[in-house]
Each structure stands twice: as C-alpha cells, then as structure tokens.
Amino acid sequence: MRIERKNCGLLAIHRLKENRDFRRVFRRGKSTASSHFVLYWYWNRESEFRVGFSVSKKVGNAVERNRLKRILRECFHDLSKRYKFPCVDIVIVCRTRAKGQSYQVLDADLMKLLRRAKFMV
User: Fold this and answer.
1) Residue 6 falls within a domain, yes or no?
2) Which of 2, 17, 30, 34 shows its CA 20 to 30 Å from the CA of 118?
3) Predicted TM-score (pTM) of this structure
C-alpha cells in the first residue's frame, strides 16, 4: 500500500538553491533586520519569487537548523497563498535568537520584516 503525500511547503520554483544566486542577493541586494532574522532581497527577472534560507551552525545542531528551515518554508507557503509576491529573490538569515522559538513568534517576526521591506501592507 502506498501512502499519498500532500504537497507541503514551497514549490520547487519558489526555492533559491544555487550558491551564485545567494551571492548575488547578498552582494547586490538590500537588507533589513529584526531580532530573529536578517532579510535580504534582490529583484529578479524571473516570473516568480524565490526564497532561500541560511542557518549557521552557531544556531544549533542539524536538527534545530532543519526545524527552523521547515518553519520558515511553511511560513512562506502560507503567505504565498494569501499574498502575491513580486518577482524577487529573498534570503532569510536566521540569528541565534531564533533557536527554540515557536512558529507563531517566528511567523510574526517574518511578517514584520516583510512589511518593513514593503512586500506586504
């Protein structure tokens, strides 16, 4: 018996994966910061927004880092259902204060950053 899996998280077209794309966003993009994250963005020529996450080993072990990335992917998945993002590459860098925080706290902090960057009203 095969178990059907729901499509969870962001689609592959919405993920920023290549190192050169991350470097371009860091080098040419703009940034804003909060207590848990640093948000970098750079306008792209693609038809969709793309999001990448950077979580340092300083934040915690692999379990904690992957937990944070799963939470952030889910936050963007929920937001992409409600809002239309422009054609932009976004990189979220997690700070050590994000470790151990709940989904609600991290989602609220991410929303605050996106409003500050004028992606949401």
Assistant:
1) no
2) 17
3) 0.84
